[in-house]
């Protein structure tokens, strides 16, 4: 397989949830999803297709609710009650207040920082940028009726997830993340508490790097085989790019939607078979996407593995 094929999977996998073999994405009202039980479910939406961003905003609010509660609980436990009330009541940027005030303990600062890191991952997984999420927050705050609709939609997402055992994102414990490890802003070394290893540390291990490259090759082979079967089934010569992106679900056929739902589970099985946890694979993938040097290392190893396979024939 050529190296160029693996570049595709580096981009394409960013739209695939590999966090859990049983995990399921939240979908719009006209698309189905499968929960842990394997039963196809339908998510009701209070928003029209033109209000897609508001639906995604509600999903992000629902998915980050547990994080907000964890953060507030940690801060209350480690902050003087009077100081906590004062900081909540005064105006100003919340992040600046909690990170710079002498009234706040180190544990509270770390909890606030980790909340922003984890919530940011969840928001972007809901097909919203952080800047757009902040814009929608201001918009919703100015309209009581809109705020009511968003809150009701978020409630539906929470109830749906609880009923069907679905997970929005990997279960990461904010308390564990707040206990230790460097959490410098934007350094790519944030530990999510899953195994205490950052993406940088994982990529620094030759064995992990090799397993990651091997997984990338096999996941890409799986993707190409899926596309080949779809083209045969649909009797077409080519498929459009971004076929499995959320915004395409509305116009996709049931056959395509079913294939897109199955791929994350199949890819997660490939990753685990190669000795990597899906959380590790996700962090390595993100690092390779953002860091040109590491991406070069990964692609060079992928190319080397390909040459070895060709030499075995």
TrEMBL record:
Membrane-spanning residues: none
InterPro entries registered for this protein in UniProt: DUF4168 (IPR025433)
Stretch forming the signal peptide: 1-21
Residue ranges occupied by any DUF4168 domain in the UniProt entry: 52-150, 206-295
Record keywords, A-Z: Signal
Stored Pfam families: DUF4168
Keyword Signal attached: yes
Name by which UniProt lists this protein: DUF4168 domain-containing protein
Organism listed in the record: Tribonema minus
Source taxonomy: Eukaryota, Sar, Stramenopiles, Ochrophyta, PX clade
């Amino acid at each position: 397989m050529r190296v160029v094929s693996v570049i595709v999977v580096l981009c394409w996998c960013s739209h695939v949830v590999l966090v859990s073999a049983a995990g399921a994405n939240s979908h719009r009202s006209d698309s189905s999803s499968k929960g842990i039980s394997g039963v196809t479910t339908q998510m009701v939406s209070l928003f029209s297709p033109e209000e897609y961003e508001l639906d995604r905003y509600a999903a992000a609010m629902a998915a980050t609710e547990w994080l907000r509660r964890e953060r507030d609980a940690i801060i209350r436990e480690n902050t003087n009650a009077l100081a906590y009330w004062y900081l909540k009541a005064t105006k100003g940027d919340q992040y600046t207040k909690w990170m710079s005030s002498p009234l706040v303990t180190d544990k509270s600062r770390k909890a606030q920082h980790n909340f922003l890191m984890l919530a940011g991952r969840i928001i972007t997984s809901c097909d919203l940028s952080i800047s757009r999420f902040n814009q929608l927050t201001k918009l919703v705050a100015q309209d009581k009726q809109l705020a009511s609709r968003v809150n009701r939609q978020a409630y539906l997402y929470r109830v749906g997830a609880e009923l069907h055992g679905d997970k929005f994102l990997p279960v990461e414990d904010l308390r564990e993340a707040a206990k230790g490890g460097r959490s410098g802003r934007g350094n790519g070394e944030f530990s999510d508490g899953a195994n205490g290893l950052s993406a940088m540390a994982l990529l620094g291990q030759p064995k992990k790097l090799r397993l990651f490259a091997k997984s990338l090759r096999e996941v890409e082979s799986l993707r190409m085989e899926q596309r080949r079967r779809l083209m045969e089934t649909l009797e077409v010569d080519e498929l459009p790019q971004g076929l499995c992106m959320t915004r395409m679900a509305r116009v996709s056929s049931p056959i395509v939607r079913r294939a897109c739902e199955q791929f994350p589970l199949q890819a997660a099985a490939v990753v685990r078979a190669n000795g990597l946890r899906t959380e590790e694979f996700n962090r390595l993938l993100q690092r390779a996407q953002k860091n040109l040097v590491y991406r070069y290392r990964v692609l060079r190893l992928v190319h080397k593995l390909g040459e070895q396979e060709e030499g075995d024939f």
